[in-house]
Amino acid sequence: MDSKTLEIIEKLEKTSEEFWNVSHQTGNFINMLIKLAGIKDVLEIGTSNGYSGLWIAEALKTTNGHLTTIEFWEKRQCLAKEYFEYCGLSDVVTFKTGQAYDIITNEINEKFDLVFIDANKQEYIKFFEAVHPLLKKGGVILADNIISHAKKVQPFVDAVSSHNEYQTQILDLPDGLLMAYKLQESLCRV
User: Fold this and answer.
1) pTM of the full predicted structure?
2) Does domain 3-10+23-182 have CATH number 3.40.50.150?
């Protein structure tokens, strides 16, 4: 990771509670997963100030990939845009502002290798229903705050865990990260 991106990541870690950013460990895990799997097309639901997006975009720069990121609050997304520009990562990012569910269902037609969900916890289930058809076979859904907001995200966790096209695991990263792999073939459940 270059020095400018590290500088901004360290700066944003000081404001993580205000902007509800993922942990450093979670950001690093997502970054490594993208590089390891050669992921190219990522959808992020919940840009906030750009912290997780910087981890994602930095990895996508190495895989020649692209990030589409959605944020409801224009002020937060403007801040994120400044950070991406400063870090030289704007060329791998498309920003969308507004209600994530509406944008996903009305504006997005492409398929994704990875979808990262970190927005309104009670809407995780709606986001899953909207992104399921957009996720390529062999793709991954990552969702933050699975442990810290367990009650709010339980309908989502139940839906993904019981879906016959996904293999899931909750990772013991700070706040809890659900990882769901969209199977190439349906998994028989016994």
Assistant:
1) 0.91
2) yes
